[in-house]
């Protein structure tokens, strides 16, 4: 074959492939086969046919339970079919693509014919015989009745049982939709024109590659200065090796910094978005809302990975490295999405063009909040007198911090007013932006005091539902107490049905999450990754509890008839504990904070602590207001 003949051969093969493609009936390529997939380690449930529906939270609880008890991570994948493979082959290929490890298990389910395949590493504590036992006893009976969620729950509980030396039991069966995701084609039976597409493509591609390789070899031989290949006068080109990987400790530090920086950027962007939405409306700010929501989802996933890394069961080094790299990648993607709309967001707000009106609105809010300071301080005083110190501890310093933010906002507004009078709209806009951020945090701190008072009063009102009359009277006659702490203990000690305990438990969890969130937001320059991670996990567990329990009118948690009140209660209590630990760590971070100082600048220290303004990048330059978008470079 000559060098000019090879391209002609390639063109001929490509023409053959094109003809095969166009001759294939549309029905053959309208329903592609379900090829093995590469799993994301953070997502243990992949449901491509919507087999689980509203029972996915129950499956997630079972997977978490298996991990907590046995430190095994079970991945569950639902597809329509196994693309002509056996379930075992499909699962093995998916595990290979996903680089699953010794502490991972994979359950793959094909909904079209109710088959499953399972995989465990050779070094797994689960033996092949145990996998088969769980499959026969706990998975297949559920699949025969189209109980897709039951199959996964049965698998998780079955694997835990065999490792504990207990008998494997068949799960309670809840029949579901017979063929979720069906109707897309004729299934896998039979052979038609569409079945020939893959063989033709493989053969044709191989021929094309071979023809191209021959032509390339001919041309390379013709252009060499020495016809003896790798002998003297010519050597094969040296391909660059893989990039050197950073040390694991360095990657871990980078992941922690990425979480903190991206979380700060998300919080700042959310505050800026709230100001813009109040002024321009939801429709005008929709693209920015979507960007902030996307960043929040990426952060939630990244924090979930961080929590898995920080738990008491360390992963092997390759797995740890992959998880750290994914944390950095998710933070980077969140930053990219915020940055992508940051310029448009700046044009929407355009404070330089409307500085006088924005300044007037900020001054009005400043006056309102200044008047509320007296009320906030009085409310905090009442909490201190009425309840135990622990009850008001989460908001103990909020009045002082709010006053500090107002002090800074007032100074910024004075400077903005002067700049506006001098027609310096750029400076006026910068100072107004800083004032708005400080006012927003001042309002948040004051509202937290009011909310805490309402939470304590509500908790005190719920105690009689859980305590005897004598116990209630004893509480009232004793020294000041903490109603939320008392309610928490009452829930833990109560032997009542879990359904009746959901609402009081949820009150405590919401109060703990709100307290931690307020502190982290308004002191974020001091807060490390651990407190932020625990807060994110607390929110995730509370959201899972909502899915398990359902919500009734007025926000009361009722536990629907298809829910799992016991699991929901456990998730709620877990959320409460995580949030309280997040607040404890955040408070410790704040106590140890030694940030930049600027003598003579009114309230600047508090503004720096709260992330309202960012430290100057060069000596002698003033701090700049934080803006919508990813972390500054």
Automatic annotation (TrEMBL):
Pfam families, sorted: TPM_phosphatase (PF04536)
Domain TPM: 56-161
Highest taxon of source: Bacteria
Name of the featured protein: TPM domain-containing protein
Signal sequence coordinates: 1-30
Ranges of compositional bias, category Gly residues: 549-560
Residue span of region Disordered: 220-249, 546-565
Keywords: Signal
Organism: Streptomyces chengmaiensis
Family matches, as InterPro entries: TPM_dom
Coiled coil start-end: none
